[in-house]
Write a structure and sequence with these properties.
- The protein is an alpha/beta fold.
- A three-stranded parallel β-sheet has the order 1-2-3, with helices on one face.
- It is built from two helices and three strands.
């Protein structure tokens, strides 16, 4: 009988990017306080996770997702343009050593980390499955 693989743990932090923080293009109230709490949690307990994963909206040309007249349902103001300051990891979490970075929404809208890929082209599901 084959042994079951040992289960591992992961923490996933979704889209902690300046464009989604207070003062950003699409601000979420309380984002800064939340990120500071996540950073504190990772400082205290981050070593208990086998993988630390972060997702990023990383728009290159998200056809139809950006609009000069957004409806805030299917279209949005320009945000998280790849390689811009608004798309980077927020400063409160920038010092975290992320094991995996998932970029999503490069050429279309993507609202889930499972719609993105890592630097090797692996989806979040594939990364998690491979890590057990």
């Amino acid at each position: 009988m084959a042994e079951s693989p040992v289960a591992r743990t992961a923490i996933i932090v979704a889209d902690p990017q300046p464009d989604f923080f207070e003062g950003g293009t699409l601000p979420v109230p309380g984002a800064t306080a939340t990120a500071l709490r996540i950073a504190e949690f990772l400082d205290e307990r981050g070593s208990s996770f086998d993988l630390k994963i972060v997702t990023q909206d990383w728009h290159v040309d998200p056809t139809g997702h950006w609009s000069d007249h957004p409806d805030l349902i299917d279209s949005w103001p320009v945000h998280c343009a790849a390689d811009t300051p608004g798309a980077q990891i927020h400063s409160s979490l920038a010092r975290v050593k992320w094991d995996v970075v998932i970029h999503k929404g490069m050429h279309e809208a993507a609202y889930s980390g499972f719609d993105g890929v890592d630097a090797h082209g692996a989806s979040l599901g594939e990364v998690l499955s491979a890590a057990n």
